[in-house]
Amino acid sequence: MPYPEMMIHGMRQELVQLGVEETRTPEQVDEAVKNTDGTLMVVVNSVCGCAAGGVRPGIAMALQQADAKPSRSVTVFAGADIDATERAREYFTGYAPSSPAIALLKDGQLVKMFERRDLEGRMPATVAESLVAAFNEHCSNADAAAN
Question: 50, 82, 111, 125: which one is catalytic?
């Protein structure tokens, strides 16, 4: 049974306010993967404390600080957007389901994955630093200009 929307609405909005698009269906996930030129960031959002304490604030910091950014950023919510989350995870080849998680895809192929174990217990600045490094490696300034 999915989480009640009233319980997670604020957690969703933390990312939406940053310009991260919600993908609530498998079709929306597929559309994002297939129709993104450049790098796509996929965030598997979660109700857990590490998502609230480090991951969402770290994403905000990274998107504000980075010169190179993904062309597009989308999110699914584990435990709420169940089918969409399952579809997103199908693109994370070689990785077990994890939430929260952050993936970077280029041309539909996974190029960088941050699993829960890479994020849990990390301060927002540490998450941001790791994301900025991944953005610098896998995104271009042209991607950032598209945002």
Answer: 50
What are the tens digits of pLDDT across the range 20-79?
999 999 999 999 999 999 999 999 999 999 899 999 999 999 999 999 999 999 999 999
Q: Point out the catalytic residue in the list 18, 22, 24, 48.
A: 48
Cβ atoms of 47 and 3 within 8 Å: the answer is: yes
Residues 6+ apart with CB under 8 A from 103: 41, 42, 44, 88, 91, 92, 110, 112, 113, 114
Annotated catalytic residue 139: no
In percent, how much of the chain has pLDDT > 70? 95
Mean pLDDT of the chain: 95
Give CA–CA dist 52/31, Å, rounded: 27
* Pick among 3.40.30.10, 3.30.1330.30, 3.30.390.30, 3.40.50.300: CATH of 5-142: 3.40.30.10
> Which sequence spans correspond to the domains of the chain?
5-142
| 3-class state of residue 125 by DSSP | helix
* Residue 22, beta-bridge partner list: 75
